[in-house]
Amino acid sequence: MKSSGETTRSGAEPPEVELVQRAARGDSGALSILYDRFSGMLLGLATKILGDPADAEDVLQEVFVQVWKQAGRYQSSRSSVSTWLVLITRSRAIDRLRSRNVKLRTTTEARRENLNPHTSPEGMRTVILKERRKRLGEELANLPPEQRDVLEMAYYKGMTQREVAQATGIPLGTVKTRTLLAMKKLRSALESEIEELL
Amino acid sequence: MNDNPRNESDIDDAVILEWLEAADLDRVPGSDALAPSDRPSGRPDNEAGSREDRLRREYLEVLGLLPYELEPVAPAAETKQRILAAVGGSSTEEGRPASGPRVARGPRVVAPGGRGWLLPLAASLALVLMAVSGWLVLQVRAQRVLIADLSARLDQGRSTEAALVASRGMLAEARSRLDMMTAPGTQFCALRPPEGSLASGALGVVVMHPAGEDWFLRIEGLEPCSQGRKYVVWFSTESGEVPGPVFAVKNSGETVELSLTDQPPGIEAIMITLEADPTPQAPSMKPLLFGDERTQLL
Fold first, then answer.
1. Which end of chain A has fewer CB atoms < 10 Å from its terminal CB, N or C?
2. Are residues A58 and A93 in contact, defined by beta-carbon separation less than 8 angstroms?
């Protein structure tokens, strides 16, 4: 188990916490490595939320500039670097979604516009990322559709529980129950992945 | 778990939904509770607070793991270049060790947001410069108008001054002539056309100062000179005719006034002829005007 919130990596690759610390000291090379490791995943998240590749690229740029600015504020005791980056990206993307009223599109549509494979060498060769994706895909697929739906509406569309209830016509209490169940199942199922991040 | 003041289910319910809706870690209610402890993250702890912190952290990481299900999307190559340009680095710095020279440089000397205020500052300066330039242009135009006005007034003043000087000169000359004519001993010699003269309508007078200097000749009624000819004043003396001043009449009825200097001694008469030679040695014709009588008033 890692104690610094870093992702297990092969060879002499610097831990992510160290990269953030170096970025906080003004090392743009460290930011460059962080970009190579996470930009593909983060752009996938921004694209999923916004549905527009150009908007998603803008968000990605904003995220890494914000990371550069706020690297000194990162605390490894609060979250892993990966989660920190994900939450910044999600927050930025949802803010843009709300402010610009970007038309949501399905993941399938977004993927159709982004046929280029992820070419970042580090992203591609990192086995753990592939494993994570596989594990997450499996565990999310194992969720009952009604639980997965409310979770995705809250997570990727930035909707509150009340908004989900209004959008789906499901009672608010039911929405909360389904969301809580989904999160608990995921926490239990992803125990090993979470351990790697702690 | 049963010894905890809050059971796991309570923590789950309180945390999960709030965090899911808060999205940003900085906006997550209660997330600061994860920070203050100096203990290594994730280290088992028997205290209830630590278990709660641990649970909070685990759910937060679940949120961080969710997007790993998505297919990664390759960003455009320019995106990374733009980011590194914005933060003051370049793509060639990738992998540079933290102990390298760039790290030693102050981290915020090249502020990430530095270019953010440069543009408004440059725009503000440009506006200020434009305003100052416009004000200066107006000032220059006003100064040019003022200079032109002053220049015109100066020319007018100079012209007036010249006229005044000329008037003073004329007045001084008139006073001088009056002084001469009213001085004791001053003589007057009338010049009249002799019989058969071609200038029958002309008349003149010579005012002679008793000291023999600054004589004054005034003639009127002479016809304009023909081509190449000039009128010549002659002084008749015992030794013959001595040429004096030469003058021309351009317009009919013109009055001629001359100052006579260097008169020869022993002048007996004064006469006027019209000569073709500008430097004649002797009159070539009978006199047009002649005078040999002197009158003394005082």
1. N
2. no
